[in-house]
Write a structure and sequence with these properties.
The protein is of the alpha/beta class and 329 residues long. It has helices at residues 48-56, 82-88, 100-103, 110-121, 126-139, 145-148, 158-170, 188-205, 216-222, 240-245, 250-257, 297-301; strands at residues 6-17, 20-32, 37-41, 64-72, 75-76, 93-96, 176-180, 208-213, 225-230, 233-239, 307-308, 314-315, 325-326. The strands form two sheets. The chain has a nine-stranded mixed sheet, with helices on both faces. The protein has a four-stranded antiparallel sheet with strand order 2-1-4-5.
Length: 329
């Protein structure tokens, strides 16, 4: 069996603050295979984006600490130097950020930024870099690509800027693409176009994708496997069909119930009571216990482990312990 493109083993990311060390990501373990699209979902503040920044080596070393293994192409890059990470970023692992307007430099043209992204990783003459950039703009469905090369980010619409970001990410044909909320700021029509584009690129280049989002509709459309995060930990993991058909963790059940269903008429949408806990505020027990309708005494005193069900579904919950098998067995 082919080795995963990316394997995360025991990832812990924390930040040093005036109030002490605050853990944001805890005990993350997952893998991404070649050509696979994996979704990471959860409410804002659950640690999704920090996980992606940890993989990219973008956690500030001044107050951030990353522990654990981040194995990419068989090598642990968790302790790689900044020089090594610069060679990997944009070349073998690329990232599409949530807001393209803050990711693109407003004082340089689109062409300058695309050409620079190619030249950093390819020893090509400028004309070849330019031709490659224009070709990639065409591939992501942007019209008048040659003219766009001369324009500045503020002259483009939100959808066009996001396509430019995807083009920039795919310039060097990375093995792994991390998309952090790539459609959040876009209207529904443009969202659909961006998702179709990413699916097309995934099929054509066999690039593995980690899709980070809080939108379960996007996950159902794009992903083969889903990781559900809460309070900095994975609480459930399953293939997309299993997760939507038979969610096991109470948090996942609550998320799916909160999705509007056009087939039924309801006066009110379902919601999960309470709020996401602040990182580091819960020291003992299940992080979801204060909001869980099924919580019992053990949930507040013991921390459940991530375990596997016989069907391969993984869950961190005492409710299903009788049918679980240890995930690492």
């Amino acid at each position: 069996m082919e080795s995963p493109v990316l394997e995360i083993i025991g990832l812990n990311t924390s930040f040093v603050t005036d109030n002490g060390v605050i853990p944001v990501v805890n005990e993350m373990d997952f893998a991404v295979n070649k050509g696979e699209v994996v979704g990471i979902v959860g409410e804002s503040g659950c640690g999704k984006s920090v996980t992606s920044l940890s993989i990219m080596g973008l956690i500030p070393t001044t107050n951030g600490k990353v522990k654990g293994k981040i194995v990419f192409n068989g090598e642990d890059i968790a302790s790689a130097s900044e020089k090594q990470m610069r060679n990997i970023r944009g070349n073998e692992i690329a990232m599409i950020f949530q807001e393209p307007m803050t990711s693109l430099n407003p004082v340089f043209t689109i062409g300058d930024q695309l050409i620079e992204a190619v030249k950093i990783h390819r020893d090509w003459p400028k004309k070849k870099c330019r031709d490659h950039a224009i070709d990639m703009l065409k591939k992501v469905g942007l019209p008048r690509a040659e003219q766009l090369m001369k324009e500045y980010p503020h002259q483009l619409s939100g959808g066009m800027r996001q396509r430019v970001m995807i083009a920039m990410a795919m310039l060097c044909e990375p093995k792994l693409l991390i998309a952090d909320e790539p459609t959040t700021a876009l209207d529904v029509t443009i969202q659909a176009q961006i998702l179709d584009l990413m699916k097309k690129l995934n099929k054509e280049t066999d690039t593995a994708i980690i899709m980070i989002t809080h939108d379960l509709g996007v996950v159902a459309e794009m992903c083969q496997r889903i990781i559900v995060m809460y309070g900095g930990k994975i609480v459930e993991e399953a293939d997309v069909r299993t997760l939507f058909k038979s969610p096991k963790h109470p948090y996942t059940v609550g998320l799916i119930k909160s999705i509007p269903d056009m087939r039924t008429k309801k006066d009110r949408l379902e919601s999960i009571a309470g709020n996401v806990p602040k990182p580091g505020s819960i020291e003992f027990g299940c992080h979801f216990a204060p909001r869980c309708p099924h919580a019992f005494n053990r949930c507040f005193s013991e921390t459940p482990e991530l375990k596997s069900l016989p069907n391969g579904q993984k869950i961190r919950c005492f409710l299903h312990e009788d049918t679980e098998v240890a995930a690492n067995e």
